[in-house]
Structure formats: structure tokens, C-alpha cells
Fold:
Amino acid sequence: TERVLSGMQPSADSLHLGNYLGALVNWVKMQERYDAFFFIPDMHAITVQQDPAELRTRVRRTAAQYIAGGLDVERSTVFVQSHVPEHAQLGWIMTCLTGMGEASRMTQFKDKSAKQGADAAGVGLFTYPMLQAADILLYQPHGVPVGQDQKQHVELSRNLAQRFNHRYGETFRVPEPLIPEAGARIYDLQNPTAKMSKSAASPAGLLNLMDSDKQIAKKIKSAVTDDGAEIRFDQAEKPGVSNLLSIYSALTDRPIGEIVEEYQDRMYGHLKVELAEVVVAKLSPIRSRTEELLEDPAQLDALLATGAAKARSVAGETLAEVYDKVGFLPAS
Ligand code: ATP
Ligand code: MG
Structure:
């Protein structure tokens, strides 16, 4: 079977609806067909400052949400990045293969460093895509399921794989970005031209998997809508309403056109109230299951240890080959 690999940052207490619809739903489907690896990139999370105790909590919470959202740890390999040291080891080699200019073109770095101020941004934020290349290439996956926002990073991974293969001989499989077509991008409720993001300035625009039913209803109610009263899908003129329609469609598996038709001659308020019901119906069971899993952290940690052992058996093989090819002296 073909292999896929993906991950989501434990950079917040909760995943958000964009992570769920843009990634997790898709992962759950993929584990049926593929040899799937899903990891929690805690090493990426520290590219911006994290409180240590909070980071630990967030890694467990993210793992619990993966599982509550439908990942089956028997079927998929679910692990924490820092449990597999090969990521850091290959990350260094990828960093050495990358050009300064090439790295400077990564738009996520530009966005995130602009948010922090150029001097506050750490070098890790700059080299993040090289560690990400290592994350991917260690497992020799045929595909990497990511949102549109990660496409440039997967492109870099492909370039680095090809460069390494060219320089040192065939070693890495060159992975394809697997970008879901529908529900691929969810926008911030308060700022519907920006993507919903864990690192958003304000939490009001995020629908979190761990939000209470009340919080969800409130956030949807106060979502920014557009001038006029007409409910139609038009991302340029009506980004707010269009985002609500996309969410509705993605959660119900109904085409947007059908939903638009249903809301003809009705008001934004109706759409919001009913959308809130749809979101709550989907998220509240996931939240309960997450809370249940978090009640037994030792058991959760044991699941992650099993995942890490499975991951290391694959990653270790790739790294050994890479170390040999670049000319490192064998350690024993
Ligand atoms: P951060 O702000 O820390 O970068 P994030 O919310 O962008 O967090 P990531 O961990 O970077 O989340 O991404 C996890 C996965 O979720 C990726 O596959 C990404 O493409 C997807 N994703 C993130 N935001 C959205 C969104 N708004 N819509 C759809 N998919 C998204
Ligand atoms: Mg992101």
C-alpha cells in the first residue's frame, strides 16, 4: 500500500474547524486506504515561544483530538515528533541542502515573522520548512495531505528530495501534495479573507473543536457578514457569507448550491442559527470523546509510545541510508 504522512501543530489548546475540515476529516478517510502516519509536530511548535507545561498539555490534547476526530491508532501510526529523534537529525541535513534565497521565498515565514516583528522571530521559524521536509522524507510517503497553505512547503520538500537524490544517489521518494478540493480552506469568522488559523490575533474568529456549544453559537452569531442581505456564494463580494456556506456544505456533505437555494428569501440570522446547530452536532461528540481520553493521560502516552516505536523503525532506516550517503563515519 501507498504511504501518506501529515501533522498539525500543537500550538493551541484546540484544533479549529479549518484543521478539522481541511485536514483531519481527510486523514480519517485516508487511513482506510493508505499506510498512514500522523504526527504531532511539537518541534515545530517551539519555533514560536511556548510555555513548557502548556506545550505538554497541548501535545496530549492534540493527540486526543486526532483520535476523537476518528484516527484509529491500530490502523494509523500516530506519534509525537520529538519522540523520533531522526526528524531533528535529517532536518539538519535538509537545512544544509537548502539555499538562503530558496528559504527566503517561503511565504509562511514572511507572514509569521511579520506578525512577531523581524527581530523577535527566531531562526527556527526560518528553518521550519527544512525540518518539515525531513518530517516528510523520512517516511518515504507517496503523498502528503495538506491544505493549500502548505503547498509551498511540500514543493520545497520535493525539491530537496530531488536535489539529494541527484547529489548522492536515489534515496528519497518525491512526495505529491494531496490537497483536498472541497472544504479545503476555512476562513476566520471575524476576518473572512484570512484563513482560520491557530495563531490568529483574536480567538473570536475561530471555531474550536474544544469550544462549548454556547461558545460555538455565539461565535457564529457574531461572524462578520457582508453588505446586503442576499445569501449567495461569492467569495470576492461576500467572503463572510461564502465562508458560512462553505462550512455548512462541508459539514453536511451537501452541495453549496442546494444550501443557497434553501436560504433564498431568508436572512443571515437564519443561516447563522442553523449553521450553529450543524456545527454543534458535529463537534460536541468529538469534544466529549477528547475529554474522556484526557482523563487517562498514562494510557494516551502509552498509545503515543507505541506510535513512536513504529515510526522510528521506518525513520531509522531512512536516516541510516542518508548518513551513509552523505559520508558520515559509522558510529560503530
Ligand atoms: P498555525 O497558525 O500554528 O500555523 P494552523 O491553524 O495554520 O496553525 P497548522 O498546524 O499549520 O494549523 O495546519 C494543520 C493542517 O490544517 C494543515 O494541513 C493545514 O493545511 C490545515 N489548515 C490550517 N488552517 C486551515 C484552514 N483555515 N482551512 C483549511 N485547512 C487548514
Ligand atoms: Mg499553519
Observations:
- Residues 149, 197 surround magnesium ion (ligand 2) (CB under 6 Å).
- The first strand starts at residue 3 and ends at 7.
- The chain has 13 helices and seven strands.
- Residues 114 and 121 are 8 Å apart (CA to CA).
